[in-house]
Lipid droplet-associated hydrolase
Amino acid sequence: MKSEPEVPLHEEFTYVYGMATQVIKCGPWKDLWKCKSAPKALLLVIPGNPGLPGYYRAFLKKLYSCLNQQYPVWVVGQAGHCKLPQGMKMIEETDVNKLNDGFGLRGQIEHKLSFIRKNVPKDVKLVLIGHSIGAHMIIEMMERAQDVEILRSLLLFPTVERMAASPQGKIMTPLLTWFRYPLYMLSYFALFLPDRIKHFMLRLASVVLHLDDATLATTIDFLNFDSVVNAVYLGNQEMKAVVERDNTAIRKHLKKLTFYYGSIDHWCPVQYYEEMKRDFPDGDIRLCEKGFRHAFMIGSSEEMAEMVADWVRDDLARL
């Protein structure tokens, strides 16, 4: 049998908004400004938290293939969540760093807008795919970025309201607020554990959680002091800031939004779906019938990618 050609993936580390950023690009387009025949659209994933692009590798590759390899599919990580290459600093030594609270929620939103303005020409339409807190970020981005041409926004397992009051939020809020500094200390002391012990512990966890090798490798990369501190700090702000749903912004952009809620999602319980559906009866608001977890990348990347491809195919065909 003839094997399928390998899907091209390009990984890069760069500074965006003055902060270290990991980007994974699927497809042959590494620089849209220099392409002789630039694609008509870019599909850009805004991840959850922790926001490491490596978690979305399988999703990117499958989505790229489902769209007949016609459009680039990229993921831009949350600033400061990645393991840095040798010699790279977490913060760039420029005046940009005077901007306040870059690793917080508002800073991460500005970081994504800065990435788009720096890397996406105005004639390339955007399909934004937000996962978890990435969904909240996209709604905020659509409000702030009048200069960015957004074709469609797909919000997967969207944490856009009452995060601290959700079942998972009630567990995580004390950890991310009262026990934040002990978590920092634990992550610091973990630096001194021998690699073989850390790998053994993570391998054991991967068996229990059914993690594949790529997810495990990404998690190992994440477990360094700076990345953990930045992710916990962002999580702390999420619990405090993501409270009331922004109905005004949702109503304004409703025709471009698709919400996809999980039926077993403890961050966005079914109640949130039902209330969203009630408040926006004309919206494209869907409930998962396949039992995907909130972290759909664990075991459901390809199925999720196939669904996303179906949702955007008509929009892309009209370009």
Notes: Residues 126 and 151 are 5 Å apart (CA to CA). Residues 225-241 form the longest helix (17 residues). The two ends are 35 Å apart (CA to CA).
